Amino acid sequence: MTKYYELKELESKAPKLFGIPTGTKLDEMFFKVEEEDGKFVKKPLGGIPYLAVMNITGVPDTGKSVFAEQFTVTQAAHGYKVLFVTVESPANFLYTALKQKAQAMGVDFSKVEQNVVVIDASESDELRENTRALIDTMAYAIREKKCTNVVIDSVTGLYEHKEVLARQIVRQIFNFLKKWRQTAILISQKRSSQASESAEAAGGLAVAHIVDGTIVMDKKIIETRWDVNLYGLPIGSVLRTIRIDGCRLTGHDSRTWVFEITESGLIEIIAPLSEYIKKRGRLVEE
């Protein structure tokens, strides 16, 4: 039997639109539009949209895991339970990374310890290879620990050597996260040969077409005199960029922004790339 709804019937089920903070300036880059005194006003959402499943993608070492850890510590510090599924790095390494992030952010690490639940799929072939087993384990943890956020680092590790099944696996996980009303971050790896502006930069068709939105992180090595003149950085420097590639749940800044990973290991978003180039160009001329 085909199931359908009158639109009005969905009103009580529709999620509210507000932000879930990531601990980065990205929180100011999502916005909603509200009517005030007959005018439409743009207001920052304060984070990624509530109940969104966001895809964070980029080539290796662009800061994706750093972003996921910063989001995890931020949510845990606010008292919200985060289920962290580590697929790449063993859980004991994750512990150290989260402790360092908490110290850098000035957060009480005991709160992080209390509010982060970890599933270690990095050392379990069954959890990595059997999506049903992973989802059952996640459901148990979410139910028992009352988690409201999920991080999977990385979802790509769940379909290594079987990319033909990528869309099916990501769809299963997406539907699961929606059913269990989780705000989620999926980290997906991009091959170094895939250009940042290509469809593959958003994790390929398997991920980008299913999730609610994609954030692309990228890096550029300053190699030529042209790069030096354009970006105002010395040869050998690394320019890191981040952009919200799309989000179907709310409005967002679509510009490419420059960011840094600080010495303490935090994401610090600096300025839109266009403004950064103008400012650095003036400094070089002076």
TrEMBL record:
<dbReference type="InterPro" id="IPR051347">
    <property type="entry name" value="Circadian_clock_KaiC-rel"/>
</dbReference>
<dbReference type="InterPro" id="IPR027417">
    <property type="entry name" value="P-loop_NTPase"/>
</dbReference>
<dbReference type="InterPro" id="IPR014774">
    <property type="entry name" value="KaiC-like_dom"/>
</dbReference>
<dbReference type="Pfam" id="PF06745">
    <property type="entry name" value="ATPase"/>
</dbReference>
<dbReference type="GO" id="GO:0005524">
    <property type="term" value="F:ATP binding"/>
</dbReference>
<protein>
    <submittedName>
        <fullName>Putative circadian clock protein, KaiC</fullName>
    </submittedName>
</protein>
<dbReference type="InterPro" id="IPR022373">
    <property type="entry name" value="KaiC_containing"/>
</dbReference>
<dbReference type="InterPro" id="IPR010624">
    <property type="entry name" value="KaiC_dom"/>
</dbReference>
<feature type="domain" description="KaiC">
    <location>
        <begin position="31"/>
        <end position="283"/>
    </location>
</feature>
